[in-house]
Amino acid sequence: MTVGSERRGSRARQQVRLRDVLSVREYRGMLLAQLASEAGDQIARVALALLVLSHTGSPLLAATTFAISIVPGFVGSALLGPIADRFSRRALMLGADFVRAVIVAILALMAVPGTPLWVLFALLLLAEFATPLFASARAATTPEVLGTAGLVTYGSAVSSSLSMANQAIGLVAGGIIVQVTSPRSALFLDAVSFAVSFVILVLYLRPRPATLEATQSILVILGDLRRGWTVLMADRSRRSLVMLAWGMSLPLVAPEAVGLAYTRGQGLGDSWGGLLMAGVVTGAAAGALLVGRRRPRDQIELVLPMAIAMSLPLLVTGLEPNIVIVLVLWTLSGMAQAFLVPVMTFTTLLTANEQRGAVVGIAGSLFGLLTASGYLVTGWIATVTSPAFAVVLMAVVGLAVVSVCFITWPGRELRDAVVRLESSSF
Q1: Over the stretch 264-283, which tens digit does the pLDDT of each residue have?
Q2: DSSP string, 109-138
Q3: 147: phi > 0 → left, psi -120 to 50 → alpha, else beta; which?
């Protein structure tokens, strides 16, 4: 064992701190690259939506830009995830950044009056397909970079919190940048952000060989996908974790899905709706950091209680209390969403290194698909009943899901697996 691994092993037996994660140079670079690319991405989505809205006057077409940005997440994650096991993950991340920088730059050049919308949407779709490949490669690389379960769980929490902060800040900043400059300038800024991410990864992240033999055969990749599903479902502990995440995906997005409609129904302005949605995201970011600080074995014990706690505050929405009370309750619900941090982290850690790309891709793909469905289902229920009733109904669904998971939960198996992870290096 090297001096470095001994030092990281010592950290795993203690409460991990933020400085412990940031002291790992490679992971510090990964976080900087994430900060650059995700912030630019959110700004670009707002810019393109506003560009489409100004050219067409159609809210539906403007919303289509956000929908298109979501599609590759659940389609590409499953199809591209296995590639992260057969090629250098560093090379895939760099390639994804390069592709996104080039395509978004072309998109910015084409974003002029007279360009057919389908061309802009097609370019956006192509750029977004590189995102799940990047995400799968990064998730599979994290255990190798950080080395111990304690560092990996806290590092994943920091990454998740940073992603949500980028989402909130990027959406606001996007509107400001477009107003001060132009949508095209914001799109060029996004292209630059991917170039910055590329340079950071070149400087910080060292090359590692692929875990499986490279291939150009689509049949081999599809075979990896099939084996990834088998691996994901074969282990009871891993299967229970992903089933909980998939089942909770509908209530997870309920507040954000109807936040604006809820405040309008209360006779309040859209600014309150924005605050409600921001409260959920801010709570989730804070919760991720708080959970990530705890030991891995403590995190796994918190998964089911926090999943329950996520739904309980939403039930009060049915009483339609003062909007400030709703804001506090939805923020608390967002904090409890941090149960997803150990769920996603341990799904990765409980998977062999050579299969992580496929398993993470499949798990993320179905989670994204169900999350998108959650927006649609909640919106439809709110339309035929009311936003408050839709939130309450989704909260009841969440409690029902946790109840089923509680009955089948492999508590001892998960605890034993996590304890073993705490004493091992990756």
Answers
A1: 788 876 567 667 877 888 88
A2: HH-STTS-HHHHHHHHHHHHHHHHHHHHHH
A3: left
Alpha-carbon distance 174 to 44, whole Å?
Answer: 7
Q: Which amino acid is at 65?
A: T
CA 368 to chain centre: 9
CA trace torsion 119, 70, 138, 284 (10° rounding): 140
Contact 131, 80 (CB under 8 A): no
User: CA–CA separation, 245 vs 237, rounded Å?
Assistant: 13
* Rounded mean pLDDT, 33-59: 75
pTM here?
0.69
Q: How confident is the model at residue 402 (pLDDT cuts 50, 70, 90)?
A: very high
Q: Are 230 and 352 in contact (CB under 8 A)?
A: no
Question: What is the C-alpha R_g of the chain?
Answer: 21
Q: What is the DSSP-derived secondary structure letter of residue 61?
A: H
Segment 405-412 long-range contacts (CB within 8 Å, at least 24 positions apart): 405/240, 405/243, 405/244, 405/247, 405/304, 405/307, 406/304, 408/240, 409/240, 409/304, 410/236, 410/237, 410/240
Q: How far apart are CA 143 and CA 349, in angstroms?
A: 7
Segment 338-376, tens digit of pLDDT: 999 889 888 888 887 777 777 777 887 788 778 877 877
Angle at 44 between CA 42 and CA 46, to 5 degrees: 75
C-alpha to C-alpha distance for 138 and 208, rounded to whole angstroms: 13
Given CA atoms 404, 408, 411, 413 in this order, what sign does their dihedral have?
Answer: negative
For the segment 295-318, what is each residue's pLDDT rounded down to a tens digit? 888 889 999 999 999 999 999 988
To 5 degrees, how large is the angle CA 406–CA 410–CA 415?
Answer: 115
Contacts of 240 (CB under 8 A, 6+ apart): 405, 408, 409, 410, 414
Amino acid, res. 317: T
**Which domains, ranges and CATH numbers included, belong to the chain?**
11-214 (1.20.1250.20), 220-426 (1.20.1250.20)
